[in-house]
Amino acid sequence: MIPRPRPERFRLRRTMMFMNAQKPGLIKDAYIYGCDSIMLDLEDAVAENQKDAARFSLYHALKTVDYGDTEVIVRINGLDTPHWREDVRVCVAGGADGIRIAKCESAQDVLTVEKATEEAEREFGVEVGRTLLMAALESPKGILNAYEICAASERMFGVAISGGDFRKCMQTTPQRDGVDMLAARGQMLIAARAAGVQCFDTVFTNLDDTEGFEAEVLQNKAMGFDGKSLINPKQIRFVHQVFAPTEKEITQAEKILTAYREQSAAGVGVFTVDGKMIDIAFIPGAERTLKLARACGMWEGDLV
Amino acid sequence: MKNAVGREIPDFLLTNGKEVYQGKNYMDGKYIQKASPRTKRYETPQESKLVESLADALRACGAKSGMTFSFHHHLRDGDFVVNMVMKAAIEELGLDNLTIAASSLGSAHDPIADYIEQGKVVGIQTSGIRGRMGEVVSAGKLPTPAIIRSHGGRPRAIEGGEVHIDIAFIAAPTSDCVGNCRGIGGKSDCGSMGYAMTDAKYADHVVVVTDCLVDFPNMPASVEAIDVDAVVVVDSIGNPKKIASAAARISQNPRDLMMAENVAKVIASTPYFKDGFSFQTGVGGPSLAANLFLEQYMDERDIKMGWAIGGICGPMVELLKKGKVGKVIDVQDFDLDAVRSINQTPNHFEMSASQYANPANKGAFVNKLDFVVLAALEIDTGFNVNVLTGSDGVLRGAPGGHPDTAAGSKVCIIVTPLVRGRMATVCEHVVTVTTPGDCVDVLVTDYGIAVNPLRPDLVECLDSAGIPHVSIEALKDKAYSLVGTPDDLQWEDKVVAVLEARDGTILDVVRKIKPYQLDG
What we know:
- The structure holds two protein chains of two kinds.
- By secondary structure, chain A is α/β, with parallel strands linked by helices.
- Chain A has helices at 24-27, 51-64, 84-94, 107-124, 140-144, 146-150, 163-169, 182-195, 210-223, 236-243, 247-265, 283-295, and strands at 15-20, 37-41, 71-75, 98-101, 132-137, 156-161, 198-201, 227-230, 271-273, 276-278.
- In chain A, strand 2, helix 2 and strand 3 (71-75) form a beta-alpha-beta unit.
- Among the domains of chain B are: 48-78 and 151-243, Glutaconate Coenzyme A-transferase, CATH 3.40.1080.10; 254-489, Glutaconate Coenzyme A-transferase.
């Protein structure tokens, strides 16, 4: 039995790596590659007649593998399937950190899963509220309802778009410049930020197209995503590299936080750092930069 | 008597000046008396040395029971020559009490196991031993223990007269009618013939076995006619498909790639990683993939590799052709890209095993090596490596150049997954010590990196590059927590193989394994 600490709703999630929950060889030690979160899949990767076997494998992995600091999230089957309730039970019983709701289209979908999660928590004697939720938006309707989905529950930590299904609905295919999903990504980002949750981009499936992958990651970063879903460990390094803060950003964040501590102790609310006006609104951003810098091995200190 | 790696060496082996392993470079400065072969004079000009059959060649060389025949392993698992020669000697000439001294033996040589069981072959001296032969030797079927040597230890033993070769058999992809041999130009090409060179110089008799006779003179020759007594043409010396793989491909396995990337990171963190550095790597998944990541660091820092040695394969030839390596010096080839390149691509040279790795000569290539990246079946908390015996104690591997490159290089990196199936690779005590821990510097696994405490300088390099590392004990604990703590193997007293350190001292012995019995 591996006890896992209470999941943190907001933490670093630059990389979420998908893997089939039915493959012991993959899930036994996926944390060694250094992704922030692993996403154990009970949905599309698992054949219809293997759902039970996958749940069994998932449960025992959760109970016996020490994933350490790596977050463990489970993608459950859609609410239109007969599988999802049992999926939720196995996630909670095994002690997964969070559940990814597939094909989420409304706040009600989140509430439905939340209710089942709470019931499972009571059933298995797990602290109520421990299990986090995130939603995958895979349809135009999901994108249109992004804000209500993001804001539906205190358990919600983020929202992700699922490119494969979404592009099919939109009758498009992946484009080099990302124009196929530009509007959807934008709308989802706005909704996530408005609701104060994190936002993750979809997987890039052509492993041989390094250039295309890198272009997409750079665009993700520029658009303001918190991270990206991945399908292979070799994609991790580049994402971490792109999402790492620059030396200049780190220095600036250190200065802001140091100055803020000094000034607020002296009763000053607004002050300047290197000629720029700084107030409390800058503090969360600076803290995020330093946490990220620490996670990237670029900074050691005690300001955050 | 206990040796420097804590292994108990039975006294009956410590005769005729044999010593137990005393530590790295113990023999430095001592003198070695070189042996000289007794060879036949061919004064009357000969048109040709061709003989009809292997049996005729054996007769021409005065083959008798009790002799030692030598072989080299460039045809790898495709080799037909060892089996053909032994069959002719035993079944046609009726010889027995024979000793095989090979640079390596593999499962291609399974039929020899029968000759061991029949008592016809009584001695085995080799670097590698696998398949059925490994099993019968482990079962104690040889009257005297097999002797396992490294690729550098073998030419040392030959040159020093510890192994006296009565007849050396040269498996030659091409030969002319007087025995000038090359590894290319035929139908069973192997490229370099480096392991055969010392044999040809120190054997009393030399027989060339080829399946492609070419016009005289076959130049430049790897083995020269001046050392050859007879040439036999056979239908086929080996199975080309098993001699050289189509192309050694760089692994796409994410675990291998991650380890390879960490190997490159470690290399790039040391002061030896500078323009002109030297390098050797194996062809295993993560070892070979290290090439890929190393190239990225070389580009980043705008430096080039001075030279590379070893068993060579395509990715290294590729680097040579791109001008990223100055010279490649080659004792053996693993794939067709390397076979086609040797002596063809400018700066791709052939060398002998002695030149490669012999600790008793005046300076082998390994002594100038900056980095070597090697695999391991097991590595223990004393950094001792086993690449010979399986977890069941049975012979199924080869020290090869492992102990030589580890001892000679400035930084020896072992790369291996922490566990293989249910077996812990990082363990308390390896089954057999084949490379002593004082020659091993860094261990890279999929669960973390450990540096040998004997190398505080490398600890500092990793620390200042921000490369996380842990103690090797922590890795062993992690491995045991995953797969459990293995029970000790149960041995009988009988020694079935002696593992010589590269300098000729005794590093370890392999005993006969007790037959497994179910409880009750």
